[in-house]
Amino acid sequence: MYVLLCIHVEVNVIMYVNQDENRSEKKMQWMGENYLIHLFDYEMEHKKFLIWGLTAGILIRAASLVFQRPPAFMEQNPKFKLPRDSTV
Question: Does the predicted TM-score (pTM) go above 0.90?
Answer without folding.
Answer: no
